[in-house]
Amino acid sequence: MLVNSNILYGIILLCGSALVVFASALFVLSFSPQHIISKCDSASDAQQVDCVYRIVDGYIAKGDISGGFKLFGAAYSRYHSFAGTGCHRHAHRMGDMVYYNLYLSGSKNINDIYFPQDTTACGYGFFHGFIEHLIQDNPNPLFVTEVCTHLTDTLSDRMGNIEIICYHGSGHGFVLHHSETVREDEWGNVLAFAEEPIRACESLPGASDVAIEECRQGVFNIIVDWMSDEEYGFAYNWEDPLKTCRALEAHMQYACYYEMSQKLDTASNLDPRKIMHIASEVADKEAEKVIFATGIAGMVQQTIVEERWKKSILPSCVTLPSPFDEYCIEGLVHGLFEHGPPLREYEFPLYLCSTDLQKFEVLQDVCYKASVKRLERFYDDAKVGTICATIPQQYMGFCKG
Amino acid sequence: MSLKITTMTTVVVVIVFSVWLFANLKQRTEIADLRGNQEVSIVLTDEGYRPRNVLIDVGTRVTFSTTRNNNHWPASNLHPSHEIYSEFDPKRPLGPSEEWTFIFNKKGEWGMHDHIRSYYTGVIYVSE
Q1: In A104-189, alpha helices (H)
Q2: Tens digit of each residue's pLDDT (9 = 90 or more) over B35-79
Q3: ipTM of the complex
Q4: B111 in A contact zone (CB under 8 Å)
Q5: Which pTM does this prediction carry?
């Protein structure tokens, strides 16, 4: 009898424990971002991205920005449809969601929103989306300065580029607001869309020259997107991409070149040499460098999945004449940071520096310098220090302190 | 003693699991069921699309309008390409007093947004 009851106890104990373990595992697993996102597995490419947005929106609506970004990161690593179709653009949507759910439907006070580190992901796309709507709905230069000053004061110690990102997003907002007042017979006229927002940028109280230039770039960023998407009567000039910019007044030209060159990946059919020829036509050497490096960075967006850039960009980079080989590596590093996996952006660039460029001493130097320079854009001091500790001794001098 | 602990733990786990399951099931999106209507109206207000999520039959004519003083541009996701249902796109901004009607002839879940203020979103569920 004693033996029987011991066996019975044993069986109950075993079954109970198994049930507890099973239920606990199921419970924990159900909260993992990969599991939550897996609901989108069966959808096709664009529907898959939309499916992710909808799940993320549910988290953002509950005020869980960090949770939303964990899902964003999971989607990036799980779906090529997500990582390879414009991670920056997807991060914009995160900013849209937070603006609507937490700002517009909340206290309308930016102080009430906590921005986790993940919001720097994919070239700060989140802040571009959030700020562009904030300023589209409140296109007041004084308000812009207040917002950007606040974000700089509260976030710059862990998000090194938040100030310029804020002014860039404000440029988006100014032109989006202004676009609603442009008459249809003016569509396709760059100045009709750009002049007033540029004036707003140039009247930002207390803004530095760099901040004003970022704002101008924000204005042209939107206009170039309209060209590429053929909206508001615009069309991107694929034969002579920089023609529009050459015709502009000097104070607008650099911003125009910079933004126009973001589409050179398509205009060049992913050929760095073609981008080099387009950039070489500009007399200003600084502009030439920016156009070329930005064009290369843009190419990374289309080739980051499965590291396709290693075959499509890198072999050309290392064979280009000097100084374009160096510009090319800088652009490649920049693109890998801008389109890389959230919070792990540094991994591809540092691997590029240490392994792929092992035989190219000068380019390896350029690579480490460009990589280290970008660490502060995405990470706080502690993480920068940790990453810096992993790079070879001879390049540690690029790290701060 | 072990039996008591196991039984109590099991009960607690089962209760927690059930509560969690119930909460998750309750988190379903609110959808306005407008099946049976041949014509449906969706209005963009300051608070967003009203209704925001609708269930309609294939072939339903949906008219989009706004009570805001701004232009509006209803279109299919994704933003800004509108590629999920590319025909669901007026291809230009609509004035504040302008309406636009689209007949949903494809079954599916069609995420949508206002192309001018892309933070306004909704979903059109089209059933047969």
Answers
A1: 121-137, 141-155, 162-179
A2: 999 999 999 999 999 999 999 999 999 999 999 999 999 999 999
A3: 0.90
A4: yes
A5: 0.90
